[in-house]
Amino acid sequence: MKVSAVFKVRSPEIRALHLTWIAFFITFYVWFNMAPLASSMLKSVDWLTRDDIRLFAIANVALTIPARIIVGMALDRFGPRRVFSVLMVSMSIPALVFAFGNTMSQLLVSRLVLSSIGASFVVGIHMTALWFKPKDIGFAEGFYAGWGNFGSAAAAMTLPTIAITLFGGEDGWRWAIAQSAVVMAAYGIYYWFAITDGPDARAHRKPRKAMAMEVSTWGDMLKLIVWTIPLVGCLGILVWRIQNMGYMSVTAAVICYLAIVAVIIYQVVQILRVNVPILKKGVPEDDRYPFSSVAALNSTYFANFGAELAVVSMLPMFFEETWGLNAATAGMIAASFAFVNLVARPMGGLVSDRMGNRRFVMLSYMFGIGIGFVLMGMLNASWPLIIAIAITIFTSFFVQGAEGATFGIIPSIKRRITGQISGMAGAYGNVGAVVYLTIFTFVTPTQFFYIIAGGAFISWLICLIWLKEPEGAFDEEYYVSSVDRMIEEQELAKAQAKLQQG
Fold first, then answer.
1. What is the recorded membrane topology of this protein (predicted)?
2. CA separation for the pair 57, 471 (Å, rounded)
């Protein structure tokens, strides 16, 4: 697939790509609509404090992790068109509640619920995988993610102007947030009618059971359990942070911890319920896949997207304090880390397509991330600012490219559970962000960069040992196993039976 292909909007798959990245762009625009208006909120609402805003920021990512897992399951069951549309329309409600909330509880709960919109990323990943062939999937996924992710930067650049210029007054921020929610709901309705789940009805293949990921061996089931625990267990860190900030009592925290443990137990039970019967019966050779590859990609997204979310939150202050810049200048320089997304992430997917070896590309990008953050750890006031900016862009290039390469591999691992694999890997990106941001509260920026570099090198080692080149990763069509055909025949038989009964 050539880069120029993205301009061929009459092509069905290109049209689907543009419809989907725009949906992702809008959801991220809404997800990050609070930060650029925080100062306006403090001026308008006299009972709000800076600590309240920090709490809202924590709430803004809290449910993204479990939401990505749940949405991943829903994707494989209902398809991305329905899930994306329902997600956009339903999440506009907490966004509107936040816009016009007049109490602390209204603002906090609505922001907490709205954090589920972060799961939108994996929906588009699955939709794009349904429309594009294996040989082109890297660039398509990278383009989708790179341009959609820019919604957060667009919110930062436009919402203050909209609030002040278009609406004005003390409540301008409320109407600016409400407007973004209304646009998202309207696009969600439009998306339902504008697109299908792939070019034909056979593109979306359902798993046997969507309550847990299917695996191929008993050892893989144990690995799945081990890698599932941190996804929910990570929420314990958020509970601990909120309690330490004084917004939660010890009793409430204990209740939250018990709820987290209960959810983990429930997930483990579902994994056993889904997989024990399948493994006892035996998985046909042509339907097996290595879960180790999924685990390796979980680690890459932890180390690249997790690092991106963490670094973006501290980079402006790092430049401001290290080189004595004003806040506006430091913010613009730090924004270069996000701007690279528009090019680097699609390029990561494109390189993955063109090189003919997706595993090698993944390893190269992860090693580059490690080198980049080691260089950033060496930065101090004695370095020329222009060199510091160049190193920041260099590092960002590898971070964003690695994200594109990760999702260039995922659709080829196991077609019918792409949604669940995407949801798990995507959730690990948020786990990485929570872990890194928590670590940042205890270390200096220099130590922080070295720690992130260490995470990238550990992920590189995991990929070197566990990541396997997916079979058929550059074929014209995705591989279809005997179990895929059996499930398709069963679905067809059910549909025919319903028609006969009707």
1. Multi-pass membrane protein
2. 41
Q: Mapped to the 3 state alphabet, what secondary structure does 288-325 carry?
A: CCCHHHHHHHHHHHHHHHHHHHHHHHHHHHHHHHHHCC
Q: What's the predicted TM-score (pTM) here? A: 0.82
From CA 62, how far away is CA 448, in angstroms rounded? Answer: 22
Spell out the domains of the chain, with CATH numbers in brackets.
11-197 (1.20.1250.20), 286-470+483-489 (1.20.1250.20)
pLDDT of the chain along its 502 residues, tens only? 666 778 888 899 999 999 999 999 999 999 988 878 887 888 888 888 877 887 787 788 778 888 887 887 788 788 899 999 999 999 999 999 999 999 888 998 999 899 999 889 889 988 998 898 887 888 888 889 888 888 877 887 788 888 888 888 888 999 999 999 999 999 999 999 999 998 876 665 556 555 789 999 999 999 999 999 998 888 898 888 888 877 789 999 999 999 999 989 999 999 999 999 999 999 999 889 999 999 999 999 999 989 988 887 788 788 888 998 876 677 778 777 777 877 887 887 788 778 778 899 999 999 999 999 999 999 999 999 999 999 999 999 999 889 888 888 888 888 778 888 988 998 899 899 888 888 887 899 999 999 999 999 999 999 999 999 887 766 767 777 888 788 778 777 877 777 777 5
